[in-house]
Specification:
The structure is a single chain. The chain has helices at 2-27, 30-176, 198-205, 268-288, 298-309, 311-314, 320-327, 346-362, 370-375, 419-426, 439-478, 489-514, 520-592, 594-646, 742-748, 774-782, 790-805, and strands at 184-187, 190-193, 332-339, 385-392, 398-406, 721-723, 726-728. By secondary structure, it is mainly alpha-helical. Strands 3-5-4 form a three-stranded antiparallel sheet. It has a two-stranded antiparallel sheet with strand order 1-2. A hairpin with a 2-residue loop joins β6 (721-723) and β7. α1 runs antiparallel to α14 (594-646), α2 (30-176) runs antiparallel to α5 (298-309) and α15 runs parallel beside α16. The longest helix has 147 residues, at 30-176. The relative contact order is 0.12. Mean pLDDT is 81; it is low at 656-749, 753-770, 784-788 and 792-817.
């Protein structure tokens, strides 16, 4: 091993000398020197440019920091502007609030006095209008009364003329008719005169239906009407269809030969007739309930016709003003329609009207039975003044029907309901033939008629003038305007004072509102707002300056970035130049030391080869250590058997397996000798057979015998030696050891084995055939020469053992008794 190590040292020295020669050859070459100078120069340029880059980078970094500072300054300035703007906004809001507070205070201060003055003005104007309206009402009532009187006069005159004309006609008829009157027709229960009204025929000849509606007396002219019980207002008429059938031929005279025909629309006389017939039915119904009958004066009747002609009546609107206009006072009122369909004569029209009355009495739930209540009003001892009014609608489909009454006692105007009794007093109509001379009576009546017609013309003219005057007054009332003259002197003074006060307050209020900014609180708020605006302007100026500074810093940063990039580009170019020159230097070096390089390579190869040998030897040493360890383990087992034999113990019967047969060791390979050849090939040495051990002094007869090592390629024993009480390693094939003691073998191999008991002795042969104890052998081995490192010591020890003992391993023998 030491020889190989010497070769290694020599090879390393040769490699160092070759490298030194290579370095000297390179350093002294002119081309290398020139290339190196060029590289050095290029490197210096690169270094200089790198410094430029570093300086530019420093500027860039500084500029970036400056930009950040300027940006921070801009942010701070922007925040300051925002805060200033917020302050301005708050100050502006405070100004508006102060203004509003001043306006509110002004309005509140003026409000009370303004309200008082305005209330005074309004009250006085209303008083003036009311006074004017009252004056007009008085005039209207006065004129309306005159109109009513004039209308009554006209009506009375007309009635008188009509009555006289009828008398003349009757006298003439009596005078000229020597035969039966052709106008007299026979009907059930009597006759009718078709030249006379339905009312006169029914009254004079008693052609009324029975008061008991359940009875049929053969007559078809109603004088009563069914009224349902108060506790069952919607009950149907149990008497329906119980009367005479008016469609029978016997009743044709009521509908033929001009019997009370209606031509287009009813005349005023026919309207009076229908009003009397309807109120006659209502009064019969009232009398059955113990109520006073209604009275219908001619004045009330004429007022009812005015009411029926008003638009509000046609649309069924109870207009108080129209009622006041028509009657001069408020009225209880019913409004309805009478259809004209089928009403070509008064009897048919009466039936249509009767249907309308029945609906208002017995089917009035939708009006909360108000019509029924008016018809059946309990007037106590009063005979309430009532009247029906009728007016044909423009389309001719209906008559507007009005029913109005009040609870004042009727005036002295004749009651139109008395006509029924008056007709009855005239006696029945007959169709008997007679001859009479009534010329004197007829002339007297004609004179009266002529005088009455003159009076009528005068009355009609007066009535027309009064109606025109009434319409003018009503128009004035509808558009009453205030005039100061409507007030008395005190009221006028109060009115003027209130007007002056109102004007003064309004002027003061307008002046205050026009100069609202002069209010102290408002002015303070405005001053604060102006200060806030000035502060905002200053902060905005600072923000503009900060933005400009930021822009300048960014421009500087952009220029610095440009300079840095240019410096980096220059550095990249110089690095390329440097790389080119370094390549040239390497080429020059390669050319200069081409021969020296081969010497270095050869020396390096030699050194590598020697290092390989050393590595192989180290591997062999490791293998030897493993073999020693295996052998030590086997020795421990054998020592144990020996101890068991000495102690008289029966050995354990061996296993019948593969371990029952003794192992035949193989012939060991001779350890390699580094000096035998250059490549370190190992030679072989034939081991010497060990001497047979002599009997020990202790008289033990155990014959261990000796084992001759033979080569056996098919059997590779493995011996395991304990190292510090542990098993490790295996013996190499072809090697074997005659174990003397575990301590001596381990000592020779440079291994510290665990101590064995002092009583243990293992005998082995020497050249002299003497017996040695373990301690003696250890003392002897301590005097053996020791060279090399620990690995080499183990190899030397292994060689000594192999030479002395032939490395034979004793087999396990049987013990016989």
């Amino acid at each position: 091993m030491s020889e190989v190590q010497g070769q290694q040292s020599q090879a390393q020295q040769e490699l160092d000398q070759a490298k030194q020669a290579q370095q000297q050859a390179t350093q002294n070459d002119p081309a290398v020197k020139d290339a190196q100078a060029a590289v050095d120069q290029a490197q210096q340029q690169v270094n200089n440019q790198q410094q430029v880059v570093n300086d530019a980078q420093t500027v860039v970094n500084n500029d970036a920091q400056n930009v950040q500072q300027k940006s921070d300054a801009v942010n701070q300035a922007s925040q300051a502007v925002d805060q200033a703007q917020q302050t301005v906004d708050q100050a502006s809001q405070a100004v508006e609030q102060a203004k509003q507070a001043a306006v509110d205070a002004t309005n509140q201060a003026a409000s009370q006095k303004t309200e008082e003055a305005q209330n005074t003005i309004n009250n006085l104007e209303n008083q003036g209008k009311n006074q004017a309206s009252q004056d007009l009402n008085n005039q209207i009532n006065n004129v309306s009364g005159q109109v009513t009187d004039a209308q009554n006069d006209v009506n009375n005159t007309n009635a008188k003329i009509g009555d006289l004309q009828n008398q003349v006609k009757d006298l003439q008829n009596q005078e000229t008719n020597t035969q039966a009157d052709p106008n007299v027709k026979t009907v059930p229960n009597g006759v009718i005169d078709t030249s006379k009204s339905l009312l006169e025929n029914a009254s004079r000849n008693n052609l009324w239906m029975s008061n008991d509606l359940s009875q049929n007396n053969g007559n078809i002219i109603p004088q009563n009407i069914y009224v349902s019980p108060d506790n069952d207002k919607g009950a149907s008429d149990p008497n329906a269809n119980n009367g005479a059938d008016s469609s029978l031929p016997a009743y044709d005279p009521y509908y033929e030969d001009g019997m009370d025909y209606v031509y287009g629309q009813m005349t005023d006389a026919q309207k009076q007739e229908l009003a009397i017939l309807m109120l006659n039915e209502i009064n019969h119904a009232r009398e059955q309930r113990g109520l006073k009958p209604f009275v219908m004066t001619e004045q009330k009747y004429q007022q009812a016709q005015v009411r029926a002609s008003q638009h509000s009546a046609e649309v069924l609107d109870h207009n108080d003003n129209d009622i006041m206009t028509a009657f001069g006072q408020d009225q209880y009122e019913n409004l309805a329609y009478i259809p004209t369909q089928g009403g070509g004569d008064m009897l048919s029209l009466l039936y249509n009207a009767n249907s309308t009355l029945s609906s208002m009495l017995n089917a009035d739930a939708s009006s909360d039975w108000g019509h029924r209540e008016n018809f059946l009003e309990d007037t106590g001892t009063l005979s309430a003044n009532a009247a029906f009014g009728m007016h044909l609608t423009d389309d001719g489909q209906y008559y507007v029907l009005t029913f109005d009454y009040d609870l004042s006692n009727p005036d002295s105007t004749p009651n139109m309901m008395d006509r029924i009794a008056q007709y009855q007093a005239m006696g029945p109509i007959t169709g008997d033939a007679h001859t009479v001379d009534n010329s004197a009576k007829i002339n007297d009546l004609n004179n009266q008629i002529s005088n009455l017609q003159n009076t009528l013309a005068s009355q009609q003219s007066k009535l027309q003038n009064l109606q025109t005057q009434l319409q003018n007054l009503q128009a004035q009332k509808a558009n009453v305007q205030f005039d100061l003259s409507q007030l008395n002197a005190d009221q006028q003074a109060e009115y003027n004072n209130a007007k002056n006060t109102l004007n003064t307050i309004n002027d003061w209020k307008n002046g205050q509102l026009a100069n609202i900014n002069k209010d102290g609180h408002v002015q303070d708020a405005i001053n604060k707002r102006n200060q806030a605006k000035a502060s905002l302007t200053a902060e905005q100026s600072k923000l503009a300056q900060a933005n400009q500074a930021l822009k300048n810093a960014k421009d500087m940063q952009t220029q610095a970035d440009t300079n840095l990039q240019q410096a980096k580009d220059g550095l990249a170019q110089l690095n390329q130049v440097l790389a080119t020159k370094q390549a040239a230097l390497q080429t020059a070096k390669d050319n200069a030391n081409a021969s020296a390089n081969q010497a270095v390579k050869d020396a390096q190869a030699k050194l590598d080869k020697i290092n390989g040998k050393i590595a192989d030897l180290n591997k062999a040493i490791e293998a030897t250590k493993a073999t020693i360890q295996n052998a030590q383990a086997q020795l421990d087992k054998d020592n144990k058997k020996i101890a068991d034999i000495k102690n008289g113990q029966k050995p354990t019967k061996p296993n019948t397996g593969k371990d029952s047969q003794p192992t035949t060791p193989t012939t060991p390979t001779k350890p390699s000798n580094p000096s035998d050849s250059k490549d370190g090939n190992k030679g072989t040495t034939t081991p010497t057979n060990p001497s047979k051990p002599s009997d020990g002094k202790d008289g033990n007869k155990a014959d261990h015998g000796s084992q001759t090592a033979t080569s056996n390629a098919t059997h590779k024993p493995t011996i395991v030696l304990p190292t510090n009480g542990k098993e490790s390693g295996a013996a190499t094939q072809g090697q074997y050891i005659n174990i003397v003691s575990k301590d001596s073998v381990a000592a020779q191999a440079g291994i510290q084995a665990p101590a064995a008991p002092e009583t243990t002795r293992v005998t082995f042969g020497t050249k002299e055939g003497t017996m040695m104890t373990r301690e003696e052998y250890k003392a002897q081995q301590a005097n053996l020469p020791q060279t090399g490192n620990e690995n080499s010591k183990a190899v030397v020890a292994l060689g000594v053992l192999a030479g002395m003992f032939g490395l034979g391993l004793a087999s396990k023998g049987k013990k016989e008794f």
